[in-house]
Specification:
CATH class: Mainly Alpha
Helix content: over 70%
CATH architecture: Up-down Bundle
Shape: globular
Largest sheet: none
CATH topology: Growth Hormone, Chain: A
Number of helices: 19
Distance between the termini: 40 Å
Order of helices and strands: HHHHHHHHHHHHHHHHHHH
Strand content: under 5%
Radius of gyration: 20 Å
CATH superfamily: MFS general substrate transporter like domains
């Protein structure tokens, strides 16, 4: 039963990844349809991310009160509403309204399932989990590219909603699996878990939150602006090819997490993060080289995603070890919130910068956050280790 449940959890993370790359892939056409500046994609992304911050911050209370299975089912239903709402939007302001349930659903899934897997499964399982997030995020740009070639961008959102509805049905059918697993779980430990204020006082937590902010700032900027980077720096590319490039960073993430799933138990989370960020820096250098063929740049973005791949799941999986199981629910919720703060504001900041300086500054922007990420994590490790040795 445990293996079947893990398969369902992987499917849940496919559903989590599906909506995330649609906006970036469809925006070059959506921008024209709504007759707004290119930077307005950032405001939609910011609204979605802001709502995920709220749901992540309340996730410790939700985890205490409700079983993970119900959080997942309600959250997937909310993302379906968001996707369908985007598909029927006629004015730009409607996107901002629909972004509310869209974002609330995503944040609740992310925090609750990450907490569940971090406390019940190995580092390998955590990496495979986030690999399946990449599967969903890779699929949706191709759904959008197909919609652009056969119909309109609206259909990209509608078709993705239909896929989500199928995943929701499977989750509903899997409810008995969750019940059997919950009977063997430590409910007392969940009830006695620490709150947010208490968790913030644990050494290393705040530095980890800032590091997560830096990581997600770079990741989310890639999610939203990679297709636009090709549209603004490379000539002669069709709309369909540009839209499909939205899958590059997600394909890299999936590859990085797939590889990490096989080696993480041997190397450990910390070494994986160090190797990952080194690979990410290599990809940034490839994108940074001026005048290169667009395929070289495309490979560079895949390498960036591959390097980013193990960072997110490794930080999450280390949480119970670094800070203790009592603090893991609140710490993971805070990490989710911190990640979405980066996702909320920094792609929008980049959108404004690229309007004034040019979108070619994207690799420099990514380099800054990669350096912050590794520097802050190393400092957080030292604080957490010193606290455990007391």
């Amino acid at each position: 039963m445990g293996s079947l449940l893990l398969a369902v959890i992987y499917l849940i993370f496919i559903s989590l990844g599906l909506p995330d790359s649609l906006l970036g892939s469809g925006w070059p056409k959506m921008q024209v349809a709504f007759n707004v500046p290119s930077s307005y994609a950032g405001y939609v992304s910011m609204t979605i991310s802001f709502m995920t911050i709220i749901s992540a911050l309340i996730s410790p209370r939700l985890i205490k009160r409700f079983h993970t299975k119900w959080i997942v089912i309600v959250s997937i239903f909310m993302t379906i509403l968001g996707l369908l709402g985007f598909s029927v939007s006629k004015e730009y302001w409607m996107l901002l309204v629909i972004a509310v349930p869209y974002g609330l659903g995503a944040g609740a899934i992310d925090a609750s399932v990450n907490h569940y897997v971090a406390n019940h499964y190995s580092s390998s399982a955590m990496n495979f989990l986030h690999c399946f997030y990449g599967v969903g995020a890779v699929i949706s740009p191709y759904i959008m590219a197909l919609a652009l070639s056969k119909a309109r961008w609206n259909e990209g959102y509608r078709w993705t909603a239909f896929v989500q509805a199928g995943i929701l049905l499977i989750c509903i059918l899997s409810l008995p699996l969750w019940k059997k697993t919950e009977e063997a779980s430590d409910d007392e430990e969940i009830r006695n878990s620490a709150g947010i204020k208490e968790t913030l006082k644990v050494p290393g937590v705040i530095l980890t939150l800032i590091a997560f902010y830096a990581y997600s700032s770079g990741e989310a900027t890639c999610f939203l602006w990679t297709p636009s980077y090709f549209a603004g720096t490379k000539v002669g590319l069709s709309d369909e090819i540009i839209a499909s490039f939205g899958s590059l960073i997600f394909g890299g993430l999936m590859l990085g997490r797939l590889i990490s799933g096989f080696i993480s138990n041997k190397l450990g989370d910390r070494l994986l993060i160090r190797i990952g960020i080194a690979v990410e820096l290599l990809g940034i250098i490839m994108v940074f080289i001026p005048g290169t063929h667009y395929m070289v740049v495309a490979v560079g973005f895949v390498i960036i995603g591959t390097g980013m791949g193990p960072v997110y799941p490794a930080i999450q999986h280390m949480t119970p070890v670094n800070f203790g199981k009592r603090y893991s629910a609140a710490a993971i919720g805070l990490q989710m919130a911190s990640a979405y703060v980066g996702s909320t504001f920094m792609p929008t900041v980049f959108g404004i910068l690229q309007e004034h300086i040019g979108i070619a500054i994207m690799p420099v922007y990514l380099l800054i956050f990669a350096a912050l990420n590794i520097g802050l994590l190393e400092m957080a490790y030292k604080q957490a280790d010193a606290n455990r040795e007391k």
